[in-house]
């Protein structure tokens, strides 16, 4: 929504707390976050939210212009939305720390390898700087992956590493990181502890 240059108000939900549960009950009938309220419309799915914003904005394109690129961007976004369960479970999003010594399991490495393949293919075809040249929904969908790659110090090929760095330097994400640093809540489920011998 920042890239769409839309004004919006954000409600911060502390997950796994009584207050957070009450807020989710109040704002989302599906009991999920994120959720978007736009007048009477309530959307509770991240990809549906992105599609709606892309349709709503008429002065800039949040999908690639060419039909074949648009199809690939949608396929990538859908794969991110529905997949990579091993990575999500082993590498919960935590942008307030670096997990040193993290070693991916085989299943997690398979997810990482697939994401790198997606990055490399898209960036080689578009010449960057974003996955499809300009910023699109696909970049928004993969921003949490860039954050995870930083947190868990995942080694990447140069092209993918440059893309991750650009994503993390994107002003809306920089602002989001600054807000996260100001939060005091700790979600124990997102605290991965690496045991080294």
What's the structural blueprint in terms of helices and strands?
Blueprint: H1 18-27, E1 36-38, E2 41-43, H2 46-56, H3 67-82, H4 85-90, H5 106-126, H6 137-151, H7 158-168, H8 171-182
Antiparallel strand pairs: 1-2
Q: Strand order within the widest sheet?
A: 1-2
Give a short account of the largest sheet: 2 strands, antiparallel
Number of domains: 2
Strand/helix succession: HEEHHHHHHH
CATH architecture type of the largest domain: Up-down Bundle
Average pLDDT for all residues? 90
User: How many β-strands, per DSSP?
Assistant: 2
In the predicted model, the low-confidence regions spanning at least 5 consecutive residues are: none
CATH class of the largest domain: Mainly Alpha
Give the overall shape, derived from the CA principal axes. Answer: globular
Would you give an account of this structure?
The protein has 197 residues and is mainly alpha-helical. It folds into two domains: 60 residues, 3-Layer(aba) Sandwich (Glutaredoxin), CATH 3.40.30; 113 residues, Glutathione S-transferase Yfyf (Class Pi), Chain A, domain 2 (Up-down Bundle), CATH 1.20.1050.10. Helix content is 52%, strand content 3%. It is built from eight helices and two strands. Strands 1-2 form a two-stranded antiparallel ribbon. The longest helix has 21 residues. The radius of gyration is 17 Å and the shape is globular. The chain starts with 17 loop residues before the first helix and ends in a 15-residue tail after the last helix. The model has no long low-confidence stretch (mean pLDDT 90).
